[in-house]
Amino acid sequence: HRTELKRFLARPSRTLDGEGFQLYGNAELPAEFERCREARAAGIGLMRTEYLFLGDRLPDEDTQYRAYRAAIEAMEGRPVTIRTLDAGGDKLPPGLAVTQGPNPALGLRGLRLSLAVTELFREQIRAILRASVHGPVQILLPMLTDVEELHQARRIIDDCRRELQRRGESIDPGLPVGGMIETPAAALAVREFAPLLDFMSIGTNDLIQYVLAIDRQDEQVSYLYDPGHPAILSLIEQIVLAGREFDCPVTVCGELAGDEAAVRLLLALGVANFSMPPASIPAVKKSLIDARAARCREILARHRARPASGRQLLGELLRE
Ligand code: PEP
Ligand code: MG
């Protein structure tokens, strides 16, 4: 069975009708670096770094450098996308002197928190830049809502680069900087963001939460969670189109990218890069190599002309 799985994972990533796609792994903990490689992921599409910050003491620059280096070395030359701290919301590091606001999901989280505690952000950026000599790395900024935040973050990254060069450290000078498109503001204004970013990653978990106004952790409203909602479809489509217009690659890294049916929906919307927990890679690969992209687009077009439930749409896509 293992050799069969290995042979299957080595097959080209192409749909039945010949459209290419790439599968990346999400890593939340170090144990997943190896799993991404074993699943033959094209790289780590989302390295969540929150785990480093959840202890009582915050990690220093060297501790972070070693963690990022471990991910890069595990991937043996395949790119690693490191997301800067996405704390706040439900996960506030105990070592941070920041108080939780009245509505954490709308409070000081993600990049907002990093820009409020810039010394912590600088340490993380320096650690990533230093690790970049060990293999290809990209920086991913979470929770963008305003281009000014992006300008600010980029200035800090440039500053850190110069600081390290002054220290005589060797770093990758052209390290790409991308952004998570996961708030309604970033999705609706994606044509403002795309020209300023080297790549975009759609965070469907937060995008769906904020667009449909359903708390992603509240079971009572989870019945409203619908990736086939016209608002979600049109936003993802706009992001894909902006990516093409501005030559800015788009990946989906939210949970939808690890779901056999939803990846066919994303394929129909023009998505070709998917990042998911490594355990989901075999099933997603099977779903996509057995799919005809043209058929998926037809099913989606029919659904949009006469919307039915998202569940119906996903069922139909899975049966195609
Ligand atoms: C997302 O929001 O879809 C995402 C990938 O990030 P997280 O789940 O860590 O918020
Ligand atoms: Mg998110």
From TrEMBL:
One of its GO terms (biological process) is phosphoenolpyruvate-dependent sugar phosphotransferase system. Mg(2+) binds at E182, D206. It catalyses: L-histidyl-[protein] + phosphoenolpyruvate = N(pros)-phospho-L-histidyl-[protein] + pyruvate. Keywords: Cytoplasm, Kinase, Magnesium, Metal-binding, Phosphotransferase system, Pyruvate, Sugar transport, Transferase, Transport. It is an enzyme of class 2 (transferase). One of its GO terms (cellular component) is cytoplasm. It comes from the Bacteria. Phosphoenolpyruvate binds at R48, R83, N205, D206, R216. GO terms for molecular function: kinase activity; metal ion binding; phosphoenolpyruvate-protein phosphotransferase activity. Its main location: cytoplasm. The active site is at C253 (proton donor). It is found in: Cytoplasm. Its cofactor is Mg(2+). Its EC number is 2.7.3.9. General (non sugar-specific) component of the phosphoenolpyruvate-dependent sugar phosphotransferase system (sugar PTS). This major carbohydrate active-transport system catalyzes the phosphorylation of incoming sugar substrates concomitantly with their translocation across the cell membrane. Enzyme I transfers the phosphoryl group from phosphoenolpyruvate (PEP) to the phosphoryl carrier protein (HPr). Belongs to the PEP-utilizing enzyme family. This is Phosphoenolpyruvate-protein phosphotransferase.
